[in-house]
Amino acid sequence: MRLFAAVLPPPERLDELGHVVDRLHHLPGADGLRWTTRPGWHLTLAFMGEVDDGLLPELRVRLARAAHRTPPLPLRLHGGGHFGRRALWTGVAGDLDGLRLLAERADAAARRAGVPMEEHRRYQAHLTLARARADAVDLHPFLDALAGFEGTRWEAGELTLVRSNLPVSGVRGEQPRYERVDGWPLEGAG
Fold first, then answer.
1. Which of 96, 133, 166, 186 is a good FRET partner for 5, with 20 to 30 A between their CA atoms?
2. What is the pLDDT of residue 173?
């Protein structure tokens, strides 16, 4: 299974973001972007890639422990940013130190469960909105439109294990499908 650990914003917070993103689709250059869709919007904490089914029991135990040790996190979506000229995202505000710690705990849980993880990078909280098909897309109009976005605060209360089902049809524009595998409440017990 292709897995990652994530925080899933509540539907009403995604609806707020969706109203802004719907307007972005009408900006010049929007057709040069491959847009993610609301069912796939999430805050990735630790990407694990292909995980052997035999590792799942230990992975679940270790992710549950990471969630148990982490308190609920006050967060909100806001603004926008980009990675290079290829990825457009909205940012996250609130308890970023807590979110970063949860990401590190999820990464460590996967490593300790035997999942071969990529090289560890500093966590950058974001929700990916679109990816450019080529470097020719000017992301500045999209960043300007996202600059004033301030989502309503919510409390992230769960660490979620998500399965990513990659497109198989070959149809242009088909999106990955994400499926919740398991989840654990953030309890803040240490």
1. 133
2. 55
